[in-house]
């Protein structure tokens, strides 16, 4: 249950209100029988407003209803002022949601423009603390409908717009504030913040545009280079996250620069593989074998895998498996013959004495 605050004011009025509350409690107290045990007595006293630990809004309580009803006794302005007072107390205690409830109750009394403007602005202040910036604007715009040049409403609107990155609107509001108080340091400070934020966002937008534009140019340059060289890139049915592994040009904006391919070397008989991230299109297969088989692999138990003792094969775009010349350049092997899946060249490496039988077996499996 929310605490009820009594506004400072006329002493007689305070006494009268206190008396009314007392009468209600006394009436209820008469219905409370003194029980035989202390436990029962305490349980019954907890039903009285001044002894309550918790308040269940779903249950009827005559005394509580009487106290709540007192908030609405009097003229609309008096009632509104009372709610506003409670709202101010909650605001000071940083209970912003409770303060909003009180200010909203004050607004519902329709007590006139003066107090309505004050409560709308106070509501805006609470929502500002809660970072409900759109609600701040809603409250301030209601004020500006009544008083278009209200400085506090304009300033809070400018601040809310700033936090929402609606910077042109923010500048419009703050400039209007400065028309009435040009030397106000708070207004000047906010205007400077808005200008700096606007410059920052414009710079970031420009950088993003340039990056996107540059990325587009690089992509088109690569596509043209691949097409001119007869390289076919095919994507997997399911999109793969390849990270930074990709076909690229050594000079991304120069179509005549060297193409660089990621290459995976597969050893199907032993279920092993090697990978080189960038292989130049002019490099020969023998050069790459000399690199990956420069030393004996740990898994080569029978000493079958050396650069001079292996052959290389590759699957073509028509689904055939062919041996490739080891002195051929990578580009010669790929051009118009092979689909490069996801931009990665796949070369199969087998011992010389086993490659023919393996290819024959592979073709049989493909037909079945």
Automatic annotation (TrEMBL):
What GO cellular component term, any one, is given?
A: nucleus
Asked if the Swiss-Prot or TrEMBL record annotates the protein with the keyword Cytoplasm, the reply is no
The residue ranges of the Cns1/TTC4 wheel domain are: 252-362
GO:BP terms for this protein?
protein refolding
Pfam family membership, one = Wheel
Alphabetical list of PROSITE patterns matching this protein: TPR
CDD domains according to UniProt: CTWD_TTC4 (cd21381)
Keyword Repeat assigned to the entry: answer is yes
The molecular function terms in GO held by this entry are: Hsp70 protein binding; Hsp90 protein binding; ribosome binding
Extract the InterPro entries matched here. Csn1/TTC4_wheel, TPR-like_helical_dom_sf, TPR_rpt
The record's keywords, sorted A to Z, are: Repeat, TPR repeat
Segments traversing the membrane: none
Q: Which family does it belong to?
A: Belongs to the TTC4 family.
Query: What PANTHER family does the entry give?
Result: TETRATRICOPEPTIDE REPEAT PROTEIN 4
What is the name listed in the Swiss-Prot or TrEMBL entry for this protein? Answer: Cns1/TTC4 wheel domain-containing protein
Species of the source: Pneumocystis carinii (strain B80)
